[in-house]
């Protein structure tokens, strides 16, 4: 009895683009890690499940030092998917691959699988504002890398809004607001009632312990002046 093997199907390759968070340590690395730990203590779980690229441009790390840095970040639940700015010969077996040619995009994550807010949004131009009708619940992440995000309700604790432009919250902001993620230093954050866990504009962060306590429960706006986030109450 002769059995004929089924015809072999072709192997299919597809190209896909993924958004990743970029971490760019500064020298000395030990001091940078101390600053990172202080920041992470205010935002536990921020990096869990996020793709991260490590940019070591200008650090001139040899393979041993690079491996130690990757290991140190791994212990902090930061999983490095690729390394940018290193000598390709430095990355080898046991280290993430060397990357090049990346272009700036938004700090990004996928929308919570249980949320249909963004999925129900009508088609729009990339630079049009994204309007979220109602509240953003705890654990949800809303991303709009090319424009403003407007939330007509409140943003719950543990929720996150990521915008390439400004963020407007017409209720209480209890979660994290990350604006200007594509390099827009003119982006601002506005909220009717300020209770935020973290605010960021163009890569600069301010955590709850460094925010002025007298602003709590007030209408607030935040913007950049040089390398500082300025916050003020709105009348």
From TrEMBL:
Keyword Cell division: yes
Keywords: Cell cycle, Cell division, Septation
Segments forming domain Septum formation inhibitor MinC C-terminal: 131-231
Septum formation inhibitor MinC N-terminal domain: residues covered: 11-78
Positions in coiled-coil regions: none
GO terms for biological process, alphabetical: cell morphogenesis; division septum assembly; regulation of cell division; regulation of cell septum assembly
Entry keyword Cell division: yes
Function comment: Cell division inhibitor that blocks the formation of polar Z ring septums. Rapidly oscillates between the poles of the cell to destabilize FtsZ filaments that have formed before they mature into polar Z rings. Prevents FtsZ polymerization.
Complex and partners: Interacts with MinD and FtsZ.
Family classification: Belongs to the MinC family.
Record's protein name: Probable septum site-determining protein MinC
Organism listed in the record: Alsobacter metallidurans
Gene for this chain: minC
